[in-house]
Amino acid sequence: LVFLFHTTSFSPSFATERIADNTNNFEEDFGIDESSTKSVGELLMTTHNHILGFSFIFFFVGAIFYFNSIITDFWKMFLIIEPLISTVISFGSLLAIRFLDFNFIILTILSAVLMYSSFFVMVGVSIFELTLKNK
After folding, report:
1. What pLDDT is recorded for position 71?
2. Which residues, in sequence order, are bridge partners of residue 33?
3. Mutual orientation of helices 73-99 and 40-65 as an angle, nearest 10°?
4. In this structure, what is the dihedral angle of CA atoms 57, 51, 18, 40, given to the nearest 10 degrees?
5. For 31, what's the count of Cα atoms within 13 Å in the CB-facing half-sphere?
6. 59-65 — which CB contacts under 8 Å span 24+ positions?
7. 111 has a pLDDT exceeding 80
8. Could you give the 3-state DSSP secondary structure of residue 122?
9. What residue ranges in the chain does DSSP mark as E strands?
10. Residue 30's CB: how many other CB atoms inside 10 A?
11. Partners of 25 in the beta sheet?
12. How far is 46 from 127, CA to CA, in rounded Å?
């Protein structure tokens, strides 16, 4: 989130410029030489790495969350499956921003908010059950 804020200031216009605009180049303070525009190869590599990494994270968090007793039925399955779907939508929409229309940034933001909200709820409920509920 710090890197995202540093590069986009959480602004949709800066985010779309970062993904699709060819006019600005800058050096990152993080020691990563980044241009404001990512090449197709960089976008594919970013998408590939994030989808694989997030899938493993959400699979294991979902496996732990599956055994909770606080949230059941529909909401349990929704919270387990939703982050996997949002991961594909979030990073797929980055390609849509680049090649189709800048307005896909709204889809990126919404799917990322859903993804991280689900993640925090699953982790929070799991930690609560593991540490505080039985005391």
Report:
1. 86
2. 27
3. 180
4. 150
5. 0
6. 59/84, 61/119, 61/122, 61/123, 61/126, 62/122, 64/122, 64/126, 65/122, 65/123, 65/125, 65/126
7. yes
8. helix
9. 25-27, 33-35
10. 11
11. 35
12. 30
Question: Helices 104-127 & 73-99, crossing angle to 10 degrees?
Answer: 150
31 by Cβ neighbours in 10 Å (0-12 / 13-18 / 19+) ranks as: exposed
Residue 5, amino acid: F
How many residues appear in the chain?
135
- Inter-CA distances, 83 with 4, 33, 37, Å: 19, 30, 27
Alpha helix (H) residue ranges in 21-72: 40-65
pLDDT tens digits for range 37-94: 667 777 788 788 888 898 899 999 999 999 888 888 899 999 999 998 998 888 888 8
Half-sphere exposure for 129 (CA within 13 Å, toward CB): 14
